[in-house]
Amino acid sequence: MSTMPDLQALLAEASALRVATDEESRASYGLDWTRYWQADTPAVLFPGTVDEVVAIVRWARQHQVALVPSGGRTGLSGGAVAASGEVVVSFERMNRIGRFDALDGIVEVEPGVITRTLQDFAREHGMYYPVDFASSGSSQIGGNIATNAGGIQVLRYGMTREWVAGLTVVTGAGEVLELNRGLVKNNTGYDLRHLFVGSEGTLGFIVGAAIRLTQAPPETAVMVLALPDLSCVMRVFDAFRRALSLQAFEFFSDKALRHVLARGAARPFESAAPYYVLLEYVRPAGGAEPDLAVFGHCAEQGWVVDGVVSQSDAHARALWRLREDISEAITPHTPYKNDIALRISEVDPFVARLDALLAEAYPDFEVVWFGHIGDGNLHINVLRPASMALAAFRQACEHVNQAVFELVREAGGSVSAEHGVGLFKRDYLSYTRSPEEITLMRGIKQLFDPDGVMNPGKLLA
After folding, report:
1. In this structure, are 228 and 171 located in the same domain?
2. Are residues 296 and 351 located together in one domain of the fold?
């Protein structure tokens, strides 16, 4: 365990601040969903107000204490890991939903609001918050913003960034900044709000957000299709995109499906295939059936071998489970995850090269593919054999990373599509960012966090 920092000066200024130093809290709050580090934190702080957050940051600067922000801890990049003696700052007490103005469709929230709680709030007010993913029941809005979370509806609604109308932040210098204040138009120079979206807590802490809501979507349908080959995926995507208003276009392999079926899910149809796609789209009005016409066209071309369309909301949810339950189903195998992004036009040639590389690099490992392929995002999960030690498994996977990321660089893609950089991808940042960009990023961090206390070692080495 790390040396306990002197908390007396902090508590003298913020007497209502809650502190936990017990072993269970330190172990739980010191990690996210990655399992490649051991928690090493002397204390967990639970601020309830902005003033308490300011006091924490100023105390950390004075005593040179490193801080790690903690939201729902559902991240997959090690961005919320406290493995080097950092003090954890949890925002779960700052979980209030504030002012909502129906006229401009903006709601003010604190960072600890659970994603699904905001979705439910929007629905109760006849509106919609479209950022959604499997961890929406436990992830928090502050963490979503800090990692620019994506999810299953990016194809239509974009990333979290699109829905952030304003931010309140406490910088690494202990200053409170009100950024953009919910304005639609604010053409007054640098929009600092966007520096904090995706910054992973390295510039400061998000303590409030003005979130833009939208109108509830029209009735949708869900379709799952069986594909005979990887090369068919983007052909099917293009055919359906031309005919329908797509909200999501997801991809997963039969290996991924088998892990979900093993947990009790029902196979969508009798046929089995090496690959599947799930698409959600606005249900055609007036009795028109362009979805079935496109399905027929794809089947004639040999791109699809079977399929099913949802017949009810319950059926649609069951079909979505086939895709959304993959991450949880493979978690017991301690997957080594890569989360890459490409331009849509580069997906088809890229996946063929990547498939060949992975088959050669991991002959003895099970590799599970899935992802939001409609927006160019692929998740590659290498599963650890039960007999293999975690450290040896990680070393074997990292040995292949360079070849995988070299392919990504050649295709002009990103080594992190939506999971962030954190500790996991920090040493691979140069595969996506130029030396000049990284130098500027370091300068920005120095400006906002002059003493280097904000989530050090994450994103930037």
Report:
1. no
2. no
Beta strands in 352-443 (DSSP E): 366-371, 377-383
Q: Are 111 and 137 in contact (CB under 8 A)?
A: no
Q: Could you tell me if 97 and 185 are in contact, meaning their C-beta atoms sit under 8 angstroms apart? A: no
- Across 256-278, average pLDDT: 95
Region 51-67: mean pLDDT is 96
- Which of 182, 211, 179, 207 is CA-nearest to residue 193? 179
105-118 pLDDT, tens digit per residue, is 999 999 999 999 99
**Which one is predicted more confidently, 10 or 285?**
10
User: 211 and 231 in one domain?
Assistant: no
Under 8 Å CB-to-CB from 395, ≥6 apart: which residues? none
Quick one: 460 exposed, middle or buried, by C-beta within 10 A (0-12, 13-18, 19+)?
middle
Residue 48 and residue 93 in contact, taking contact as beta carbons nearer than 8 Å: yes
Q: List the one residue out of 418, 422, 429, 426 whose CA is nearest residue 455.
A: 422
Report d(CA 144, CA 106) in Å as an integer.
17
Strand partners, 307: 225
374 & 230 share domain = no
What does the angle CA 433 – CA 84 – CA 458 come to, to the nearest 5 degrees? 15
Task: Note whether 319 and 343 are same-domain residues.
Answer: no
Dihedral, 107, 173, 27, 117 alpha carbons, nearest 10: 0
* 133-166 tens-digit pLDDT: 888 999 999 999 999 999 899 999 999 999 999 9
- Mapped onto helix, strand or coil, the DSSP state of residue 434 is coil
Can you read off the two tokens belonging to residue 362?
A: 């991991």
pLDDT at 3 (0 to 100):
61
